[in-house]
Amino acid sequence: MGYHVVDTDEVEPVPDRPCELRRIGVEGGLENFALNQFRAEPGEQVPLKYHYHTEQQEAFYVLSGTLFVETPDETFEVSAGDLFVADPESPHRAHNPDDASEAVDILAIGAPAVSGDAEAYDPDER
């Protein structure tokens, strides 16, 4: 048996990201899915790039604020308490707009936990 308690405030943010990212699942020893905590101030993007995953299904659960997720067809507004899900091969870019009045706090869940799965997406090449 194995149990873990992670003080997420003690997890160091990942450097060189467009917003604050804490890989809390890694610290908790998760192996089957990824669990990350993000905090995006107004004007900050959540991922490094507009992207899609080849294998991973990704979900953003909004803890506070409003998350905007751009897709090729529309931009979704995801309020606190709501969940946005992107299936594999579904391009998306999550961000907090410049004119937002507050930060957005998010838990991002991805399964399966695979590295190197994110592919850049250029909406101008559609």
UniProtKB/TrEMBL annotation:
It comes from Haloferax marinum. Pfam families: Cupin_2. Keywords: Metal-binding. One of its GO terms (molecular function) is metal ion binding. Residues 39-102 form the Cupin type-2 domain. PANTHER family: OXALATE-BINDING PROTEIN (PTHR35848), SLL1358 PROTEIN (PTHR35848:SF9). It comes from the Archaea. This is Cupin domain-containing protein. The keyword Chaperone does not apply.
